[in-house]
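Sequence of Ig-like domain-containing protein (Cohnella rhizosphaerae).
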Amino acid sequence: MQRLQLQLRLRFRLIPVVLLLTIISQTLGAFGAAAASGGPVAVTLQPADNNPVVPANAQLSVTFDEAISRGTSGTVLIKEVATNNTVGSYDMATDTTRLSISPNNRLNISPAPGALQAGMDYYVQITPGALIGSSGYFSGITDATAWNFHVVAADTTPPAVSAFAPSSGGSMSATGALSITFNEPVQAASGSIQIVRRDTQDAQVVSVLSSAVTGSGTNVIRVQPPTRLASSTQYDVLIDNGAFVDTVGNKYAGISGPYIWSFSTTASAVAAPQFVYPLRGASGVNGDAPITLQLQFQTGMKAGTAGNITVKKGIE
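Predicted 3D structure, token representation.
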């Protein structure tokens, strides 16, 4: 009888313990599944995976779909494909020389001089949790085939402009966009573009890292002035030295003075005004009293040097 009572007591004591462990296990499992499904996603690798012509002095980068910051631990590894030997190991938490984060959601990796050798194949790995975004930790790049490339001789030639649009001396609408075509892909690095009104020297200063500048990573950079330009006006464009760099970090020299890239805006067509008072088709307006006609235009207006406003009697 005593043995039976002891067994019953043990069984009843075990039930809550087993139930508690089950709840904890299910909770941790659910949390793990949620954490695994979040985190920043790599949208662009520079150089691209399997790129066969990466200069030995190339700068590497990963662009994500959201803002990122450094995790408390994690490593970026560069390894030889043939031997799996590590030629670069950079600690995410502490290395500010080889690793940096740009405002445009980009992790920049600067291999140490001599780390990449011409004629060799390499791959890059990033340990899970090395980076964190608003949605969680980055899951990392752990597969040796996910980001690999072939290295060629170093590139020391800076990028050059192939074409401006509008061309220097050309024209565009006051609401149009500027574009710069380079002879190779470039990245927005730092600095600004100034659009300077020649008669007043007023300037719109546009950061190359702002949303007004697009096309980073391609040959064509597009600049949409945040504020509408004045019609029938001449402008000069200035670009900071180093505002754009090629894939190895060679800087575009920029434009430091007027008349190098200049253009004029065309006269804008004026949209028909709205009739404020009296409204179109209004009735019952007292024609015996003075009337002030009110029109509202979409843009600022001033009196011209000629012309009349004529009021006619309508058909009854």
